[in-house]
């Protein structure tokens, strides 16, 4: 891929050199035709300016890929890599945006007829600015929001987030929108302004490690210590567990059952999800086989009525 981009870069540079060096030949071809000479000259200048802009964009992208190749995103402890990938990718988009806008401005000013209109517009820049601000405030708001996300970094590439009641990973961060890859491979596309205005959850803000929570509901006669032993046995034989957190607590009690909370830890969000599912399944199976009488139940009390016999 880098070889292809380098070849493309060289091709653009050669094209620019040829355009500049063949100006005398072009002038000889159109000699005596003023309008044709002007048109060809303008076309040549526009091609040179657009080619230079293209050359700059390709150089920025090659430099970006060179920098990103130093930081591996596949490592388990990839917090610094994700941070730099986010910053460099967004910085590249900002630079490319500036190059494109500048190239369009230079092209417009290089044409005589358009330059006269441009001078008039610059003379009334105050009014034009107000009109532009009112008509394109959402577009510029989204662009500035994207730049703000790049600077403040409330999330990074590959962060696990919960937005709009959906859980997934940050897949793309652009100037005007962010793409979230949902757990079932759907893509949720949100404007950059969403993350400035709306609250969201970031599960991997400072580290990829996550706690997984499993709730069980049992009868009061259930021996919690036996459940602790079984959980320890399961986790020690499970590769999903990162060997950090192994906790069981009775967190609530109701009339008919008690709530048991299990806390386990994993190296990242997908692994934590799989670990939670595994622990929940095995804990329910353990209770069913060994303590079936401790499953939640509704109690019915029978009392003897002296006049009518037994009643509920």
Question: How does this model look, in words?
Answer:
This protein is α+β, with helices and mostly antiparallel strands and 312 residues long. Among the domains are: 124 residues; 85 residues, Alpha-Beta Plaits (2-Layer Sandwich). Helix content is 55%, strand content 18%. The chain has 10 helices and 10 strands. The protein has a 5-stranded antiparallel beta sheet. Strands 6-8-7 form a 3-stranded antiparallel beta sheet, with helices on one face. Helix 3 packs antiparallel against helix 4. The N and C termini lie far apart (79 Å). The relative contact order is 0.07.
Quick tags:
55% helix; alpha+beta; Alpha-Beta Plaits; elongated; five-stranded antiparallel beta sheet; three-stranded antiparallel beta sheet
Number of strands: 10
Q: What is the number of helical segments per DSSP (H or I, 4+ residues)?
A: 10
The percentage helix is 55-70%
What's the pLDDT, averaged over the residues?
Answer: 75
How is the topology of this model organized?
Blueprint: H1 2-21, H2 23-29, H3 34-68, H4 79-110, H5 112-123, H6 125-135, H7 137-152, E1 160-163, E2 166-173, E3 177-182, E4 187-191, H8 194-197, E5 201-202, E6 210-218, H9 224-236, E7 246-253, E8 258-266, H10 269-290, E9 303-305, E10 309-311
Antiparallel strand pairs: 1-2, 1-5, 2-3, 3-4, 6-8, 7-8, 9-10
Helix pairs in contact: 1-3, 3-4, 4-7, 9-10
């Amino acid at each position: 891929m880098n070889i292809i981009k380098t070849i493309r870069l060289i091709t653009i540079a050669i094209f620019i050199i040829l355009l500049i060096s063949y100006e005398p030949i072009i002038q000889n071809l159109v000699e005596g035709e003023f309008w044709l000479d002007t048109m060809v000259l303008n076309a040549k200048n526009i091609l040179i300016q657009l080619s230079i802009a293209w050359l700059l964009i390709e150089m920025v992208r090659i430099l970006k890929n060179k920098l990103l190749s130093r930081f591996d995103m596949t490592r388990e402890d990839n917090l610094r890599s994700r941070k730099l990938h986010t910053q460099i990718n967004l910085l590249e988009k900002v630079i490319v945006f500036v190059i494109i806008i500048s190239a369009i401005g230079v092209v417009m000013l290089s044409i005589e007829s358009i330059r006269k209109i441009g001078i008039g517009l610059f003379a009334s820049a105050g009014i034009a600015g107000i009109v532009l601000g009112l008509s394109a405030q959402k577009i510029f708001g989204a662009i500035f929001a994207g730049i703000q996300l790049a600077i403040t970094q409330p999330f990074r590439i590959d962060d696990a987030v919960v937005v709009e009641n959906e859980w997934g990973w940050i897949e793309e961060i652009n100037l005007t929108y962010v793409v979230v890859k949902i757990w079932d491979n759907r893509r949720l596309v949100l404007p950059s302004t969403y993350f400035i205005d709306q609250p969201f959850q970031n599960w991997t803000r400072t580290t990829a490690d996550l706690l997984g929570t499993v709730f069980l509901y049992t009868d009061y006669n259930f021996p919690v210590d036996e459940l602790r032993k079984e959980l320890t046995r399961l986790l020690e034989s499970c590769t999903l567990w990162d060997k950090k957190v192994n906790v069981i607590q009775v967190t609530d009690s109701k009339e008919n059952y008690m709530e048991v909370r299990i806390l386990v830890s994993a190296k990242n969000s997908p692994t934590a999800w799989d670990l939670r599912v595994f622990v929940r399944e095995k804990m329910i199976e353990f209770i069913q086989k060994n303590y079936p009488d401790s499953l939640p139940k509704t109690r019915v009390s029978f009392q003897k009525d002296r006049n009518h016999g037994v009643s509920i």
